[in-house]
Fold this protein.
Amino acid sequence: MASDSKKKKKHAPAGASAKAGAGAKAAAAARETASESESARESERETEAEAETATATTASDEPQAAPPQLGGIKRKNLIIIAVILALAWAFTINTGSTVLMIIVGVLTALVLGVLVWAFRAIGKQQRMIKLLQGATNADARRQALAALSEGKDAGTPQNVFARAQLLASDDPKAALAMIESMELRTFPAAMQDDVALLKTQLYLGFGRTADARKVADSMNLDNPTRKEVRALAASIVAEAWARTGKSKDALALLDTIEVPKQNAEQIRVQMRVARVFARFAGGARQAARNELSALAGEDVNLLSRFLAPQFRVHPELQKLARSVLEGHPAARKMAKSQGQRRGPA
């Protein structure tokens, strides 16, 4: 019995050591699992953080609607007006009629008054466009906003639209509130399509697809005076259609787009985004996935357009975009490097 007792005593440390080793392994496994879980949670938090800023970055990275335009007065029209007035005065002087001279004099004064008003309006417009073109960073946009907010013209439709364009890059909610404060019909006819384009962009950025569709349908995409923005406008209208039940029409519209040299890359990205929505809405899930993969190939951050909660994307499309994100090498590499920076728990 004494020897049995000695054997038990001899074997006891080995059992304790085995238990301790198993406990250490379990603890290590638990730490590893916790570290992986924390890494996954951190990656998810970072994805959500990127998604929260998607609206602002989308507004700043994409080409914006054209600045408000008044069109100006062509030199040919000025020559015609001058010739008509000269002929009228020649005829009046030839008749020698005092009454006719008074009538022609009043008409001449009215014409000159209209021309002076038009040239002043054009001058203001040119100064406004210069401000918009110079607002290439946050500080410049703030300065331009301050300049446009001062003076008696601050409440004019042209001024409101210009300020909304500047705000869209940094505060899309404020930009939408500003542009919604005026009915579309209150803006000059020549700029209503530009206003509608900006509103559609902002509505889509907040997932208000029904509102985006309503405004998009009001645009004249074939307006010959707006050829330079037709590609951008058509790609945004296509997204609005694709997200509101007109996927076939959206794809047909995208096929008509001729991408210009200016802003070509941004417009192609917008077209691909619209195709994702159109393919998905049409039931072509694999085609939608292929478009998502192509977007991720250009920039994995572009997938936030389908993951950001404010975009209100269909849950199945969100799931598809997330699977593409999780399988993308750049995303995996980013998650791995983040885990290495954090180190062991």
Summary: The radius of gyration is 32 Å. The chain has 16 helices and no strands.
